[in-house]
Amino acid sequence: MMTSAVTKPRPVIVVVDDDPAVCSSLKFSLEIEGFSVRAFYSGSEFTAANNLESCACFVIDQGLADSTGMRLIESLRARHIGAPAILIVGHPYARLAAQAAAAGVPIIEKPLIGNTLLVMIREACGIS
After folding, report:
1. In this structure, are residues 60 and 34 in contact, taking their beta carbons and an 8 Å threshold?
2. What is the distance between the alpha carbons of residues 57 and 85, in angstroms, rounded to a whole number?
3. Do residues 72 and 98 make contact, with C-beta atoms less than 8 angstroms apart?
4. Distance between CA 80 and CA 71 in Å, rounded?
5. What is the spatial distance between Cα 110 and Cα 86, in angstroms, rounded to a whole number?
6. For the chain, which terminal residue's Cβ has fewer other Cβ atoms within 10 angstroms, N or C?
7. pLDDT tens digit sequence for 47-87
8. Long-range pairs for 104-109 at CB < 8 Å and ≥24 separation?
9. What is the SS3 assignment for the chain?
10. Residue 111 above 80 pLDDT?
């Protein structure tokens, strides 16, 4: 008797960054690690998106041209989307760090060096 292997769906990670090189690089890197990735190149594109409820984790740049990462995370919470979010920040400052900490949102600084972001995403998705 043959049994078929059931393939677990790949966790969907959302990346929001208005720098096309960063966004594409993150998408490529995360797909190599086995994630499914939805990339958005602006805050408005992300805000207009549907079907975000099934996403496992959000990786959002704070310094978007048309919004801020924290505003986008607040909009997710207002839509009752509670998946973990990670904020990418070029220049963190105390008020932003306090705001992110109060919202339970970890911050990672640019430039993204090493595998810190991947480790944070895996932890957020409950993957060891």
Report:
1. no
2. 6
3. no
4. 14
5. 12
6. N
7. 999 999 999 999 999 999 999 999 999 999 999 999 999 99
8. 105/70, 105/73
9. CCCCCCCCCCCEEEEECCCHHHHHHHHHHHHHCCCEEEEECCHHHHHCCCCCCCCCEEEEECECCCCEHHHHHHHHHHCCCCCCEEEEECCCCHHHHHHHHHHCCCEEECCCCCCHHHHHHHHHHCCC
10. yes
Whether residue 9 has pLDDT greater than 60: yes
Find out whether 43 and 74 touch, Cβ atoms under 8 Å: no
Least Cα distance to 83 among 53, 112, 63 occurs for: 53
The residue count for the chain: 128
- Give me 35's structure tokens: 């994630």
Amino acid at 88: I
Q: Which two tokens stand for residue 94?
A: 């105390």
- The encoded tokens of residue 37 equal 């990735």
Q: Is the dihedral of CA 57, 80, 93, 61 positive or negative?
A: positive
Long-range contacts (CB closer than 8 Å, 24 or more residues apart) made by 110-118 = 112/26, 112/88, 117/26, 117/59, 117/86, 117/88, 118/29, 118/30, 118/33
- The token duo for 50 is 């549907």
